[in-house]
Specification:
With about 350 residues, this protein is α/β, with parallel strands linked by helices. Helix content is about 50%, strand content about 15%. The protein has helices at about 10-20, 25-35, 40-45, 55-60, 65-75, 90-100, 100-115, 120-125, 140-145, 150-175, 195-200, 215-225, 265-275, 295-315, 325-330; strands at about 80-85, 85-90, 185, 205-210, 230-235, 250-255, 280-290, 335-345, 350-355. A 7-stranded mixed beta sheet has the order 5-4-3-6-7-9-8, with helices on both faces. The chain has a two-stranded antiparallel sheet with strand order 1-2. β4 (about 205-210), α12 and β5 (about 230-235) form a beta-alpha-beta unit. α7 crosses α10.
Length: about 350
């Protein structure tokens, strides 16, 4: 939170940032084309010598005019510098080319979000994902994930998995070591990554994945291909259907990057049904990223902007939450937080919750 408590920019810096925001869509598209066309790579490969405009045109085989417009825009954006008639790459240009987080975010925004964000104001007014119509005709994006065009699906899962891939190896010991978990219910299993990681880490645990039927089909195919069907079961259900009770008999319930897909009232409803399904001495483990507990301002910024995807495209009523807002939902559902572990992977917090006695 301390990142956002004071206004530290001068008036001149603030006005420059305001223009950067005003031209935001231009900045984004130019950076992406400079990356994808090979222009930035050719400049980087030239090293300290740099490249002239004519040399770049020859190497990338694009029209002289178009390359010139992109590079002149790239100067103002800060991706390249220009001296002695040659272009050289900047540190920011390097990150646009090579930083995994930057590339995952850029692909996610371009392929999944860009057109839909045009409908953001509409979504704010209605509380519905009005931008989703740019991708398909579904109530939320989750019903349509398995039907998205391959390149859009790739960018969506690339974004989703990038963060879980850094967190899962770190969080597995926190969940399984000394906790004697034999039977776990995973709610919102996505493509089965947690179940696969769990069975590899803990030879005794059995996972039941509960999710939408469309989502389960993707996870089931992967589980079967890995020969893990004897250790992973599937329970299809619409989580938002409050008439559907959760299956009982589990000593732990796991949810990762899942509850941020729901409104506060929906989170409370889901957790109340977890409360009813969980064994008396069991725990609910929740892995989430909260923007107010990040070590770096950049991480907080990324999470805050990701919330807008939920508003305009995903479901219209959820977000990447402030931790206190989220914890209040946990308390309302009849749980207390037994243990909190921050700074897992890039940005995650693990909440270990138990029933209030």
């Amino acid at each position: 939170m301390h990142f956002f408590s004071t206004d530290t920019k001068t008036a001149l810096e603030s006005k420059h940032l305001a223009q950067f925001i005003a031209f935001g869509p231009v900045v984004f598209q130019v950076a992406k084309v400079l990356r994808d066309s090979g222009i930035l790579k050719e400049i980087e490969d030239s090293g300290a010598a740099g490249l002239s405009l004519e040399a770049i045109v020859e190497k990338v085989q694009l029209p002289h005019y178009g390359v010139r417009v992109l590079l002149e825009s790239g100067l103002g954006i800060g991706l390249v510098i220009f001296n002695n008639d040659t272009y050289k790459i900047t540190k920011t240009g390097y990150f646009i080319l090579h930083d995994p987080l930057t590339n995952v975010n850029m692909n996610f925004i371009h392929d999944v979000n860009y057109k839909g964000l045009f409908h953001l104001e509409e979504s704010i007014k209605t509380g519905k994902p009005e931008g989703l119509k740019e991708l398909g005709d579904w109530p939320t994006i989750y019903e349509g994930l398995s039907q998205l065009p391959p390149h859009i699906q790739k960018s969506w899962f690339g974004f989703d998995h990038f963060f879980s891939d850094t967190a899962f190896p770190k969080v597995l010991p926190h969940v399984y070591d000394n906790n004697h978990i034999k039977n776990m219910l995973e709610i919102g299993g996505n493509t089965g990554k947690w179940a696969i990681s769990s069975t590899a880490y803990n030879k005794d645990v059995h996972i039941t994945i509960m999710d939408l039927p469309q989502q389960l089909s993707m996870a089931k195919n992967k589980i079967e291909a890995l020969g893990l069907s004897h250790r992973v079961s599937f329970h299809p259900v619409n989580i938002l259907d409050e008439s559907q009770p959760f299956p009982k008999g589990f000593d732990a319930i796991w949810m990762s990057q899942f509850l941020d897909c729901f409104s506060e009232d929906e989170i409370v409803s889901i957790l109340k049904r977890c409360h009813a399904a969980l064994d008396e001495d069991g725990f609910v483990y929740i892995l989430e990223a909260f923007w107010d507990v990040q070590r770096f301002e950049t991480a907080a910024f990324c999470l805050q902007q990701t919330s807008v995807y939920f508003t305009a495209l995903a479901n219209g009523n959820s977000q990447m939450y402030h931790s206190e807002v989220f914890k209040n939902c946990i308390y309302k559902a009849g749980f207390e937080i037994a243990q909190e572990t921050d700074n897992i992977g890039l940005s995650h917090t693990l909440l270990k919750c138990r029933k209030v006695v």
